[in-house]
Amino acid sequence: MPSFAHENRILWLWQVVLTLLTLFRVPDVLAENLLNGARLGTFPKPDFRTNFTLQSNQGSGSFKEIRHGLNADPFYVRVYAKPRNGNNTAFCFNGIGSSQSSPSRSSYGGLIFAYNSEFVRIWAPSDQNGHIVFVKDGWGGEVNTQESNEAEVVVEVWKNGPAPTFQIEHVIDTRLDISSQVYHQVDHELRQLPERVVVRLSPVVTDSNNESNPNMGFWFHAIASSQNPDPNSNFGG
């Protein structure tokens, strides 16, 4: 299986779905168990859960595809790594939806995951500078640093959940150097801070020839901060 970087060398056109959950607007609509389950502190048990050992720097061996068997796009997916040794033994490091750093200049780390109605795909770094867990080189004053090439990876999938109070789809095309195409602001009209916001993306095409992307139909979670300020190296998300 090719690496994440190879499969997603250029992701220009994305379908973006923004989902907001606000529990104050819908108490009479949702069942009480769904209301409670929507809060992180009382999240129900996942419908699918598995764990396995994954290593970085193993080429295609640093990729894993898991069949969750739910036959539907999940309500929520969580993927995290737990190092078995070091300063952060048994701590959970959540995976994200895209690489935010190029391996060309320095060390980096973390898991990338995506999912569809059948599978969850997990990528660990396969470059020699990449690590499955990496907390070092300028983070937190070097307190409890961690550089691990092997960890226990846990995949949890929830099939159903509360209906969102707001949801919208939008297409972003990064081929066009126009701010209105790569930046999009949405008025959710809730007039209060949402309980939870989820932004997820699915690649549509990879180049000007509309070549099919091997991850088409898979969903990648967006994150709220870029960790790669270098304009000369690759990044995404």
Write up this protein:
With 237 residues, this protein is mostly beta strands. Helix content is 6%, strand content 34%. It is built from 3 helices and 15 strands. The chain has helices at 4-7, 32-38, 179-182, and strands spanning 13-21, 48-55, 63-67, 76-83, 93-94, 108-109, 112-115, 119-123, 130-131, 133-135, 146-148, 150-158, 166-173, 196-205, 220-221. It has a 4-stranded antiparallel beta sheet, with no helix packed on it. Strand 7 and strand 8 form a beta hairpin. It is globular and about 45 Å long. The chain starts with a helix and ends in a 16-residue tail after the last strand. Mean pLDDT is 77; it is low at 1-12 and 21-38. This is Lectin. Residues 1-31 form the signal peptide.
What is the secondary structure topology, with strand pairs?
Layout: H1 4-7, E1 13-21, H2 32-38, E2 48-55, E3 63-67, E4 76-83, E5 93-94, E6 108-109, E7 112-115, E8 119-123, E9 130-131, E10 133-135, E11 146-148, E12 150-158, E13 166-173, H3 179-182, E14 196-205, E15 220-221
Parallel strand pairs: 6-9
Antiparallel strand pairs: 1-13, 1-14, 2-12, 3-8, 4-5, 4-12, 7-8, 10-11, 14-15
Protein name: Lectin
Signal peptide: 1-31
Keywords: Signal
List keywords for this structure.
4-stranded antiparallel β-sheet, 15 strands, 6% helix, globular, disordered N terminus, signal, Lectin
